[in-house]
Amino acid sequence: xxxxxxxxxxxxxxxxxxxxxxxxxxxxxxxxxxxxxxxxxxxxxxxxxxxxxxxxxxxxxxxxxxxxxxxxxxxxxxxxxxxxxxxxxxxxxxxxxxxxxxxxxxxxxxxxxxxxxxxxxxxxxxxxxxxxxxxxxxxxxxxxxxxxxxxxxxxxxxxxxxxxxxxxxxxxxxxxxxxxxxxxxxxxxxxxxxxxxxxxxxxxxxxxxxxxxxxxxxxxxxxxxxxxxxxxxxxxxxxxxxxxxxxxxxxxxx
Length: 254
Ligand code: OAD
Fold this sequence. Notes:
Blueprint: H1 3-15, E1 18-23, H2 49-52, H3 55-60, H4 62-77, H5 83-97, E2 101-106, H6 112-116, E3 122-123, E4 126-133, E5 139-140, E6 162-166, H7 175-186, E7 190-194, H8 206-212, E8 216-220, E9 233-235, H9 239-251
Parallel strand pairs: 1-2, 1-7, 2-3, 7-8, 8-9
Antiparallel strand pairs: 4-5, 4-6
Helix pairs in contact: 1-9, 5-9
The chain binds 2'-O-acetyl adenosine-5-diphosphoribose (OAD).
2'-O-acetyl adenosine-5-diphosphoribose (OAD) binds next to loops.
């Protein structure tokens, strides 16, 4: 991809007053975390994530579901943020230093944006690093990585199975996360959608919503998505390569 490809989106980024970034599993791919729709590996190869990530699966087999989520918790803790996460943390600093507003919305549950230095990302699907009682919703602290839970399912002080604080298929997104998302999208003049297959709503609808509101949109993904034909600029490639280039181009004279 030549420098010319980056010129217009970089100018739009530098000039934007209100930036929203939506990320998906692809942004963590280069940290070694498989994307949601990749086939699972090793012991989990025969399981389908869409079948495990449901309240019904947890009710039916809490041991299996909590083992899988603890495997993911420890896997995420063992990974490091990559150049894409770091570039988004820098983007936030640059936009805020210019007096603009910046909101990071993520569908990821791995906590890597925070570890890369992003301030208070909106975790639309929760976090695999925090757990709670399935009955009282009170937080239950897991052992520090790399320690697994001693028992599966873990039992909360209230005597009920503990569960990861993530959103499962069929569950509502956290209300405050949705409120923050729509407030940011309302005033947004530039939306970046990074590493998401854009098939899971409501996040997938954010591009349509913003395009309808007159905002410009940038998609960063090695492949086409159902939203690609709606975006202003589609930057094809891996986020750990594209985002540092975009930011270097946008803020090089600052
Ligand atoms: P997916 O696994 O559906 O999609 C990952 C996207 O990342 C794909 O479009 C890939 O082309 C792209 N991709 C792969 N490698 C990349 C890279 N190095 N750089 C940039 N992009 C890359 O993951 P999500 O879109 O995040 O929800 O999935 C959304 C939600 O679907 C998940 O949060 C999960 C699932 O249902 C719940 O569990 C509720």
